[in-house]
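Workshop exercise sheet. Pairs work together: one partner reads the sequence aloud, the other fills in the structure field after running the prediction. Swap roles for the next sheet.
Pair: D.N. / O.F.
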Amino acid sequence: MKKKHLLPICLLVSLCMACSKKEGAKTPVVPPPAIAKDEYINPVFTPILADPSVIKAPGTNAFYAYGTEDDWGDGHGTHLIAVVKSTNLTSWNYLNDAFVTKPNWKANGFIWAPDVNYIDGKYYMYYAYSIWADPNPGIGLAIADKPEGPFSDQGKMFLSSEIGVANAIDPFYINDGNKKYLFFGSYSSAANNGTWGVELSADGKSVPDFTKKINVAAGDFEGVMIHKRGIYYYFFGSKNNCCDGAASVYQVRVGRSINLMGPYLDKDGHDLKTRGNGTLLIERNTRYAGPGHNARLMQDDAGTDWFLYHAIDRGNPLVSSGANRRALMLDKLTWNNDWPEIKGGTPSISAQKAPVFNDH
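Structure field:
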């Protein structure tokens, strides 16, 4: 009986295959994962928005994010601090670059790690000016009337040689007790390494006394962000390699202090001024490498804190220019016994509940 039906079946299969070829059948397109209206999935902006700074424009429902100078491989060359906009933290649109031309106070360098703040009715951008392994990088300031710019460069704040700190990049501004401060610093094994803080002038445009800087963390940290919550100041800093594609092992570690200038201690009571310390907050997983260099925490209308940072898709780590595809990421941050936590301690991969904004 089986042999009797073999020929008709073979003919039927052949006819079906012929019809498919004749009609030019295509491989079915796999639809993207279904995401509910109140959900999102990482990344929230591609291809690149490295070392992000995020601000909510006063009096509006709009968030603006800014990223390190990079060539996205889109044929437009390097973006001189890309500016992107969102009203919900999950959907971002590119607007323009913050700078029309590169600042000229340094002969050679890239504009890295912008930190944008609303100060005295204007938008102040503190930024690093550096090349890889730069012996004398520095930090500059640009100011704009609008969050999207254009930003007008005000020149340098200081060079590493002037402030007396090795690898003085990655600025972070904070206003505390009606005084303005700038934190900065990055990887170095020099004697004057580490993350430091210094008081700024009343207008935030200069450092009155370079000698009054204070060391708050060792030289195995970079990308500092300090967040005040309750009685504590929380130090968020990135460690390890940011930019080795799928092999990147960047991560964020934290400490806290009851004083802005420290000492910052991790959960085990170890001072961040000693190398190797810091409580782990987020690290790589099977999907994303190098999560780190986070922005300020953003809070939604439900009072939830959100953590924005960059990470690299291990399956698609580079853009056509060869730059690391450090995309903008978003994850919920919770507090446990006055310590910050991210679910699983790694970037989320599946769909997550989105931030809540009542006016949307």
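Discussion prompt: The radius of gyration is 24 Å. What would you look at next?
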